[in-house]
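Objective 1b: paired records.
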Amino acid sequence: MYVRVVLALLLVVGCLSAVSAEEAAEEGRAVRRTVESSGTVELVVEQAADIIAALNSAEFSLPANIGELIDAARTSADSADTWDVALMLGMAESASGNVSDIVSSAQLIEEGTEKARRNGDSGGLLMAAMANQYAGNEAAYDALLAEYEAAVTDEGATTKRSYYTFDLTVRNRSAHDMKVYVDGNYRGYIHPGWELYVRDVGIGWTTVEGLCPQCGEYWYDEFYGDSWDNWTTTFW
């Protein structure tokens, strides 16, 4: 099974970056609320019209149910429910040049990141890194990517041990450089058109991930590797 995973909206958002709360404050615009110290969040479904009025523009319009989407993302225990909504808000903020005083993309990204950390979710940390990169927060992207790499290395060292192994070839047919992770372990860096040969991968369900540090694109493959196979994964 091969799945190329790219966060919904990431290709659309491109180089647009969200307006930060600090920038909004400097320009006299409304600044987002912070999460309560108790960790609870205020539901915003009844304030959806105010969010839309603050952020809609000729270039981008939020869906009418944005309040429901935000509430579902914030009350979910899974950080995976956060990123699409956060990036949608980021697109609206960039297009309108405004930040709602009710909730912001930066706030959702921060909350999603904390959920990923609490849940020990390395995949969530990677998505948090990518969301920060697309929001223009390079320092946060670098820090979270390092945190992700440390997490998957620890996970990979303890979650898959096998006496029998197989060899794996990873082909990069994309137009991007990529870092390759096999079962959560960093295994090398490959340029477009090159191949990476990985020896002695433990048999069983195997994950292969590719990440382009420069552009934030992400590839994913999962399969059951047997000791008599020489498996090849190709990322396009």
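Objective 1b, second protein:
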Amino acid sequence: MEKIKLRKAGPFPKPVAPAHAVGLEEIFQNQRLTDREIEVANLIVWEGLGAKDIARRLFISPLTVKDHTAHVFHKFAAKNRGEFMAIMINKISTIHFPHS
């Protein structure tokens, strides 16, 4: 059985939010996503995580993740993850990426 390491409660690190780098933050704000919904959406879009993995990353219940995911999908008028990803791919394709 795998040992689980517990850590002290305190300020939890925020997941990497590439939204700042590629302009999705404005798209998410225009859809009136909460901060937590933005975190969940980023983890779906950029890391392809499912509810259990997102729950582990954010230290919340998988059911809570499913609630946040349902809210995100509703706000983007997506019926499921596939539709949400198609919408996000379309939106990402319209963002201008500065050259590094």
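The radius of gyration is 15 Å. Helices lie at 19-22, 24-30, 35-47, 51-58, 62-75, 81-93.
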